[in-house]
């Protein structure tokens, strides 16, 4: 197994395994205490097994929500996240499957309704990325897979969940700094993240009269399993250190943005994007 200059093992499969990481991502700020912001709510978190998804799950549990965590096949990480959630007194259902498939999205929603009876929050957070310096290197199979995972799953999850969401419900989509400024080595990924921004604004207008809010979080360089599963050892060197804050971000620094947009604190914010990126992109 190859290692980065910081001795981080380079992983060969996406979306990556948190348990394999040498330097563990920080999913919770030390001393954080919940205050019931999501008391009695039910939330679905896609990509909920590790990284940003794990951080969202633990914060939501601390705030009183019961959870359904969807993931591809990262069973070991998902089970650990469930332990962390249940430790905070919340219920946690696990669901494994490829959410790029419409039927899988419907199955997830059906299981959540069977288990909990409602959906109050939908966090679309699943994603993958494959660096290439030239568009000619992106074949149809990768192009379609990246779009199926990163944007089609968001449409399909919203379509499946929306009939079960009532006034006051919220949807939060995870985009990326790349969706705003682009990246010459993540061309297909950038296209999906830009699409998420447009989807967010359009859906926010579409469901505003129902009292449902749709918003977005666009992280910058964040230390998650996707990073060592994406980049070479050379690309990992100095990751995040060129931001104005001079460091990589932690998953909890993104999860608190999702929490704000999921709860009543952001009641007058539809169709917006928060940018936890260390000042790397200020728009």
From TrEMBL:
Keywords: Oxidoreductase
Keyword Isomerase in annotation: no
Polar residues composition-biased segments: 9-20
Gene3D superfamilies in UniProt: NAD(P)-binding Rossmann-like Domain
Keyword Oxidoreductase among UniProt keywords: yes
Signal peptide extent: none
Listed GO MF terms: oxidoreductase activity, acting on CH-OH group of donors
Region (Disordered): 1-23
Short name of one Pfam family: adh_short_C2
Family membership noted in the UniProt record: Belongs to the short-chain dehydrogenases/reductases (SDR) family.
Protein's recorded name: SDR family oxidoreductase
Source species of the chain: Bowmanella dokdonensis
